[in-house]
Amino acid sequence: MKRFKIRFADSSDREVILDVIKYGQVICLRDNTFIVLEPALNHLNELGAKFVNLGEESWDRVVRTLRRAMCSA
After folding, report:
1. CA proximity to 70, closest of 32, 29, 25
2. Sign of the C-alpha dihedral computed for residues 30, 31, 35 and 41 taken in this order
3. DSSP string across 3-62
């Protein structure tokens, strides 16, 4: 399944991420970006959330990002 990196346009729109969790794994990164599954994008559009799609993320890149975050913590 495809994963996408997104950033919310407004901090108040970030609250919808709690509803998006129902559609699968959500990864929150330190720079206030999120990695979500493809069905979550459709749900965010249905909710009218304002977000920027930063592009598709491969699973390998997701894993590398998480490993870097854990090593620098």
Report:
1. 29
2. positive
3. EEEEEESSGGGGGGHHHHGGGS-EEE-TTSEEEEEHHHHHHHHHHT--EEEEEEE-HHHH
Classify the C-alpha dihedral 23-46-41-31 as positive or negative.
Answer: negative
Q: Give the global pTM.
A: 0.78
Whole-angstrom Cα distance, residue 50 to residue 72? 30
The dihedral through the CA atoms of 44, 48, 49, 50 has a sign that is positive
pLDDT tens digits along 17-33: 888 888 778 888 888 88
**Cα atoms found within 13 Å of the Cα of residue 47, Cβ hemisphere only:** 18
What is the rounded CA–CA span in Å between residue 12 and residue 20?
15
